[in-house]
Amino acid sequence: MTTVPHVPRTEGFRALVDDLGICFGGDYNPEQWPRDVWLEDADLMVQAGVNLVTIGVFSWSRLEPSPGERDFAWLDEVLDLLHARGIAVDLASPTASPPPWLGVQHPETLPVDRDGVRLVAGSRNQFTPASRVYREHALAITTDLARRYADHPAVRMWHVGNEYGQLDFGDEAAREFRSWLRDKYGTIEALNAAWGTTVWAQGYRAFDEVLPPRRMPYLVNPAQSLDFRRYSSDQLLAVYREQRDAIRAVGATQPITTNFMEFFVHADYWAWAPEVDVIANDHYIDHSSPTAASDAALVHDLMRSLGGGRPWVLMEHAVSSVSWRPHNLPKSPAQTRLDSLQAVARGADAICFFQWRQARSGAERFHSAMLPHAGADTDVFRSVTALGADLRRLRDVADGRVEASVAVLFDWSSWWAGEEPARPTERLETLAQVQRWHRELWRRGVAVDLVRPGADLSAYRVVLVPHSYVLEPDAAASLSAAVRAGASLVVGPFSGVADANAAILPGRSPALLRDVLGVSGEEWVGLPDAPTALEIAPEWTTGRAAAAGLPTAGILGERLRAEGADVLARFAAGHLAGAPAVTRHHAGEGTAWYLGAIVSDDVLGAVLGDALEAVDVRGVVLDLPDDVEAVRRGAALFLLNHGSTERIVTAAGRWRDLLSDAPLEDAVAIGPGDAVVLTDRP
Question: What is the dihedral of CA 612, 270, 631, 647, to 10 degrees?
Fold first, then answer.
C-alpha cells in the first residue's frame, strides 16, 4: 500500500495543552460497566481533576458484535457525558484485540509462534500484522469509527491500536517477509551476498524458498534474523499507518498517536517516531530495582528525543502495583507522585494511568487503578486527586524544553544484531550498557538526548557510544566530524564491529573509527568471572577510580594497539595482560576516548567525567547530593529526592516553589520522596 509521507501535526497536541494545561487522566473502559457507573465515573473524574481519558482500546467486540454489525449508541452516550463535564477524549481504534469471531472464521488472521503453534483468541493481541483479512476488518471498523466521531467535540486526540509488538512466524508472515526482501534486495543473488549464505550451504535459488527464522536445528543466520526483525517492525508500522491514514481520510484533524513501550525490542521507534503526531509511552517502573529512578529518566529522555525535543505523553503508568509480574510491589502515593513529576521534568505534558476504574473481572482485576475496588474513600483516590492539583500548579511548565549538550547514540538494528547468539559473550547487553552510562550523567544532573546513528551532532559537546555493534559509514563520519569540530567522544567496547548486514567489518576494529580513536583491535575475548585488574597510568588522575581502590574490568575485553592514542589504563593480568584497556586521543579540536573492556563503575565515571570537563559541561546544580535528580525544563528547575532521607541542595538565588508556592533561597531542603519545582522569584 503506497501512502503519502506523514507530516506530524504537532500543533494539535500543543493546542490541547494550551487549552487544558498538563493533561491528566487514564484509560477508561466504560464498556465494562453499566450506565449508572458512567455517571459516577464522570463526577469523580471532575473531582480528581481528570481532563483527558483514553476510550475504546479494547472495545472491538462491543462495537462490532457480529461481522459488519455496528453498535455505537453506547459510545455516543459516553462521549456526550464526558464532554458535558469538560473531559477530553483520546479515542482509540479498537484494533489491538479482534473479536473472537474473526479468528474463528479466519484462522489465518491468528499469529503463529516460532515453534509453529497457532495462537488462539481468549486473551488480547491475537492477530498477525501480515494478515490481509485482519487488516481489511481493522480498516473497516476504524474508518466507520472515525467517520462517526471526527467532528465530535469531546474527541481531541486519536489513539491507533495499542502497544504494537506482535510477532508472527506463520505462512502469512512468510509471504510478506519475502515481499519485503524483494523490495530491499531486488534479486536473490543480492540477498545471498548480503546474508553470506555460502556459510553452512544456505544459498537460496528464489525468494519463495526463504522462511521466517522459525525453530531450527541450530543457530539462525544472524543476517536473516536481523532482516526479520526489521521486517517485523516495518510490518507493524504499516498496520498503524493504514489506520492513521483512514482516520485522516474522513476529515479528522486531531493529533493521532499510538503508545510506545519504553525500549521495546520488537519495534524500531526511530522509524516510528516521524509517523505519530505526538510521542506517547507506556512505562511501568519496577521500584524493586535499585536503579529504577535513573532507568526511568533514561526512558523519558528517549521519548523526548524521539519527538525532537517536543513535549510527549506518558500514556500509561501504574498508580500502585501492576498484576503481571511474579511478585507485585505497590507504589506509595509519594512514589507515584514522584514518578509523575519526573516525567514532567523530562518533557511530558500529559500524565495518564492504566486505568481509571479498577476492573472487577478479567486478567487485570488486580492491576491498580485511579479509582480502586474500594472506591473514592481511599488513600489511592485521595492521592490521585492531590496529584491532579499538583499538575494544575505546573501549568506554566507545559511546552518548556529540556536543553541537552550530551548525546547518547542508540540504534535498534545494532541492538538486535549485537545480541544474536554465538558472540564472544552473551553477557554484554546493549541496553544495560546504555543504562550504566546514562546513570553517570543522571547522577551529575547533566541533561542527555538520545540520537540515532548518522544524526547531526553539531549541537552537542559530548557524544557517548556505550555499545554500537553495527556502525555504518554515515554514522562513523558524523562521530568523527563531531570530534574534529571540538566535541568529546567516548566509545564503549565491541562497537563498530559489524556492517548493516551483521557481517564483521574487515581489518582491525573498530575499522570505521580507527583514525579518530587512535587505536585498533585484533581480538575480542570474554573475561573471567573474577574481575580483571587494571593498571592506571600515573599521568591519568582517575578521580573516583583512584579513591575506590583497584579498578577492574569484566565480561569482555579487546586486544588493542595504540596508534597515536594515550594509554590511560592497561590490563594488569590474564589473557590481555599489558594490552591497553582505556585510551584517549586528540583529533582536530576534540578528544576521543575508547574503552576496550566493560570497566568498573569507578573507571567509567572517571572517563565520562574527563570527557565532560574537557568541554566544560556541568550539571544544572553543582555538588548535587546523592539520590537527588536535577533537571531544568524551560525556566523551571526540578529537584526530586529519590532517597529515604532529607537532602539539602545548594541552589543560589531567590526561588518560588511552584508546588507549594513557598519562597526559597540558596539552600533548599527536600524531604524523602518529595520534590520542588523552582522558578525565579523577583
Answer: -90
Q: What phi-psi label fits residue 441: left (phi over 0), alpha (psi between -120 and 50 degrees) or beta?
A: alpha
| Residue 463 main-chain phi, psi, to 5 deg | -125, 125
In a domain, 59, yes or no: no
Q: Alpha helices, DSSP H only, in 420-528?
A: 430-444, 473-484, 514-517
Residues constituting the chain: 682
Distance CA 449, CA 373 (A): 40
Mean pLDDT estimate for the chain: 96
Task: Print the domain residue range for 656.
Answer: 628-680
Is the model's pLDDT at 547 over the cut of 50? Answer: no
Please count the CA atoms within 13 angstroms of the CA of 81 that sit on its side-chain side: 21
pLDDT tens column, 283-300: 999 999 999 999 999 999
Q: Assign residue 574 the CATH number of its domain.
A: 3.40.50.880
Kindly state whether residues 598 and 633 are assigned to the same domain. Answer: no
Asked if the structure places residue 382 within a domain, the reply is yes
Q: What is the pLDDT of residues 204-254, one digit of tens each?
A: 999 999 999 999 999 999 999 999 999 999 999 999 999 999 999 999 999
Q: How far apart are the first and last CA of the chain?
A: 58
Closest CA to 441 of 617, 195, 285: 617
Are 502 and 389 in the same domain?
no
Residues 449 and 486 placed together within one structural domain of the fold:
yes
| 407 strand-pairing partners | 449, 463
Of 27-31, 89-93, 121-125, 639-643, the range with the lowest mean pLDDT is 121-125
User: What are the pLDDT digits (tens) for 625-678?
Assistant: 999 999 999 999 999 999 999 999 998 889 999 999 999 998 999 999 999 999
Q: What is the Cβ-side half-sphere exposure of residue 413, based on CA atoms within 13 angstroms?
A: 23
Cα–Cα distance for residue pair 201/195, rounded to 1 Å: 12
Note the Cα 301 to chain centre separation in Å.
8
Same domain (yes/no): 387, 410: no
> Among 41, 5, 12, which Cα is nearest to 370's?
41
Rounded to an integer, the average pLDDT of 299-318 is 98
Which of 334, 359, 394 lies at the terminal end of a domain, its last residue?
Answer: 394
* Strand extents, DSSP E, 222-323: 256-257, 259-260, 280-282, 312-316
Residues 520 and 586 in one domain: yes
CATH number of the domain that residue 660 is part of:
2.60.40.1180
Distance of CA 72 to the CA centre of its chain: 34
Rounded-to-integer distance, Cα 306 and Cα 346, Å: 13
Same domain, 570 and 674: no
8 Å CB contact between 276 and 157: no
- Domain boundary residue, one of 351, 372, 394: 394
Residue 504 included in any domain: yes
Do residue 655 and residue 602 come from a single domain?
A: no
List of long-range contacts for 609-616, beta carbons under 8 Å, 24+ apart: 609/440, 609/543, 609/544, 610/584, 611/462, 611/464, 611/488, 611/489, 611/490, 612/406, 612/444, 612/446, 612/462, 612/488, 614/488, 615/461, 615/462, 615/486, 615/487, 615/488, 615/590, 616/461
> Active-site residues: which are they?
163, 316
Average pLDDT over residues 25-36: 97
Least confident of 293-302, 340-349, 456-465, 646-655: 646-655
Biggest alpha carbon–alpha carbon distance for the chain = 78
Query: Does residue 542 carry a pLDDT above 90?
Result: no
- Number of structural domains the chain divides into: 3
0.70 surpassed by pTM: yes
496 and 638 within one domain: no
> In 265-304, which positions are buried (b, 16+ CB within 10 angstroms) versus exposed (e)?
bebbbbebbebbbbbbbbbbbebeeeeebbbbbbbbbbbb
Residue 352 lies in a domain: yes
